[in-house]
Design goal:
With 601 residues, this protein is mostly beta strands. The chain folds into 4 domains: 132 residues, Jelly Rolls, CATH 2.60.120; 119 residues, 2-Layer Sandwich (Chitobiase, domain 2), CATH 3.30.379; 128 residues, Sandwich (Jelly Rolls), CATH 2.60.120.260; 143 residues, no CATH class. The chain is 14% helix and 39% strand. The protein contains 8 helices and 38 strands. Helix 4 links the parallel strand 11 and strand 12. Helix 4 packs across helix 8. The longest helix is centred in the first third of the chain and has 20 residues. About 2% of the residues have low confidence.
Length: 601
């Protein structure tokens, strides 16, 4: 049998090479991947639609909207390098349609591509210029454009396409350095925030700070939960720690800044915010307003921040979030304007909406119409008198309001001529910034509470809440955030009783207050019913004490964070999932709908 052999010189050279590699591995382990792995973990930036609150993603369709816009906050001090817009989801295009998917970032086109016909997966990574992430936020607009095949006679002007951007759609990149400033840590908060309140923070001051911060975060659209211990890194969401610095250190959080009431700290690959000083009137508001952009270091010590509140009897639709930029329209365009009565000047109920529209001249057979819906109910339809800058006023009938509302303004181009030979022309239109809601009347039931609270109110909390503060916060905050005005600062009164100011009470109704519903010995009772109490839920009811109006929230167990649509009723029983029923002023169950079901054939 032949014997293989290797020259001794080659063996010696191989041995030297192995020794050199081993030496370099010991002296510079980062050359062999360890730093790259660490960099991927603690310097990766990844913000999805789910992280900014769009848990169900976005849809582009003919019956919904062919344009969708979302804004992603990004760090400023730790620069995002090689940013990418990743579109994830699916597309459906009719066989007779030619559809293009377009993406714009900060108003500049970054992507356009014809979509294939049929059903397909959407998985596109779009490289972005680094200038798009320099201002602290990325504004993304996704559009579908195109037409049906004109070789066939199609009387419809629909595109015949559906694009679903699922919650994995994101902006991603790599940070040039680990997050280390307060404002960047705030920008990286996920949709789900966990407020960590350790056992050492069982005091009224810490409870109030946690409650104010959680209410503000809830009003900003965050889903907030509460715990005493720091959750695992892979549990999802962003922890925000509230408590003495030593107690937070014991949880494994290491502050990078040693001064200030708000500090940035690290726990493994996570960069987390810690509130180490119970400043009830400053810190929560500071963290949830644009003033936080001044906090460009590892800690911040805000001492005062007075917020300007809207006054008068009008509030512009632009201030409520309406898109007042120029839009393209062929047949119709809708603007959705969500608003809460608690955020309106004085907490009153709108009686009308003044619409200022800019529309171009069109064909002689066409006219511009405006339709107005409130909470999915058509309340007015108006004809614009001319072209150019036009003003119309749509009346809002009383009794249709909720505590949280959605106003939808739809501009329609109506024509006398139709058929297959009519050319479909896009026009530029604009809902002008002067468009405004006019506020005039008082509400009833729950919708009257925002006006009662507008001048300030007290939060009455039993001292027993400090035995289990995380459970008490879960019982208090979701409903408080619903009726608390924007950045309002109510006064907390522990074991307090109703006085001259309106009040929000947690627990059983105060002594001397008559309430429609009582919770006692595991029973829910009123004049019209006596039922076994639910395991987890809330009884929410309007009460009065003399001339003072109040709202009482009586928790049972650990209620969920799903808030129902409160309206003109005065009492509601809310189960953990957001269900339940309405109680009339006479203490009876209100059945909705109050009709029997239709028979089936």
């Amino acid at each position: 049998m032949d014997r293989s052999w290797v020259p001794k010189g080659a063996l010696a050279l191989l041995g030297v090479a192995v020794l050199l590699v081993a030496a370099f591995a010991i002296a510079n382990p980062s050359w062999f991947g360890s730093d790259d792995d660490k960099r991927a973990a603690d310097r990766a930036f990844d913000k999805t639609l789910r992280d900014i609150g769009s848990t169900d993603g976005l849809r582009l369709s003919d019956d919904n909207a062919t344009t969708q816009t979302f804004t992603v906050p990004v760090p400023i001090d730790s620069r995002v390098e090689r940013p990418v817009l990743a579109l994830r989801g699916r597309t459906e295009v009719a066989e007779s349609s030619t559809i293009f998917l377009r993406a714009l970032v900060n108003g500049e086109s970054v992507y356009v591509k014809e979509l294939p016909q049929g059903e397909h997966k959407l998985d596109v990574d779009i490289g972005l210029p680094e200038s798009t992430v320099e201002d602290g936020e990325v504004k993304v607009q996704v559009r579908t454009t195109g037409s049906l095949d004109q070789r066939r006679c199609n009387l419809t002007t629909e595109l015949g396409a559906l694009v679903v951007l699922d919650a994995r759609t994101r902006i991603k990149g790599e940070l040039d350095e680990r997050t280390h400033t307060v404002r960047d840590a705030v920008a990286e908060l996920d949709h789900h925030v966990t407020v960590v309140l350790p056992t050492e923070a069982k005091s009224t001051a810490w409870f109030e700070t946690a409650a104010r911060l959680s209410a503000f975060l809830t009003q900003q659209g965050h889903e907030v939960s509460y715990t005493e211990d720091l959750p695992d890194e892979d549990d999802g969401g962003t922890p925000v720690l509230v408590g003495p610095a030593d107690a937070l250190d014991d949880l494994g959080w290491n502050a990078t800044g040693d001064k200030g009431s708000i500090r940035v700290g690290e726990r493994g690959d996570q960069t987390l915010l810690g509130v180490v000083d119970p400043s009830p009137d400053v810190v929560p508001a500071f963290l949830t307003t644009s003033a936080v952009t001044t906090a460009d270091t590892g800690s911040s010590a805000p001492r005062s921040e007075q917020l300007e509140r809207a006054t008068g009897d009008q509030v512009t639709l632009e201030a409520l979030g309406a898109d007042t930029s120029v839009q393209q329209i062929i047949d119709r365009r809708s603007w959705r304007v969500p608003y809460a009565l608690s955020d309106l000047p004085g907490g009153g109920v709108p009686t009308s909406v003044r619409l200022r529209m800019l529309v171009p001249p069109t064909t002689e057979d066409a006219r511009w119409l405006v339709q107005v819906r409130l909470n999915d109910e058509l309340v007015d339809s108006l004809l614009l008198p001319d072209v150019g800058r036009q003003t119309v006023v749509a009346k809002i009938p009383g009794g249709r309001e909720l505590v949280r509302n959605e106003l939808v303004v739809t501009l329609v181009r109506d024509r006398d001529v139709g058929g297959c030979n009519v050319r479909q022309t896009p026009y530029d239109v604009q809902l002008l910034p002067e468009s405004a809601l006019t506020i005039g009347t008082d509400g009833a039931g729950f919708t009257a509470v925002p006006r009662a609270f507008a001048a300030g109110f007290d939060v009455l909390v039993p001292s027993s809440s400090l035995k289990d503060p995380t459970t008490a916060l879960a019982q208090l905050v979701p409903t408080l955030a619903e009726f608390d005005g924007w950045r309002q600062q109510p006064t907390y009164r522990w074991d307090g009783t109703p006085g001259d100011r309106a009040y929000f009470a947690l627990g059983s109704p105060p002594t001397g207050v008559t309430a429609p519903v009582t919770v006692r010995d595991g029973r829910l009772s009123a004049k019209g019913f006596d039922l076994s109490a639910f395991k987890d839920g809330l009884v929410v009811q309007c009460v009065t004490s003399g001339r003072t109006q109040g709202l009482v929230v009586t928790p049972v167990g650990r209620p969920g964070d799903v808030v129902p649509d409160y309206g003109r009723e005065s009492a509601r029983l809310v189960t953990a999932g957001g269900g339940g029923f309405v109680v009339s002023g006479a203490g009876r169950v209100v059945s909705a709908p109050a009709v029997r079901a239709e028979g089936t054939e």
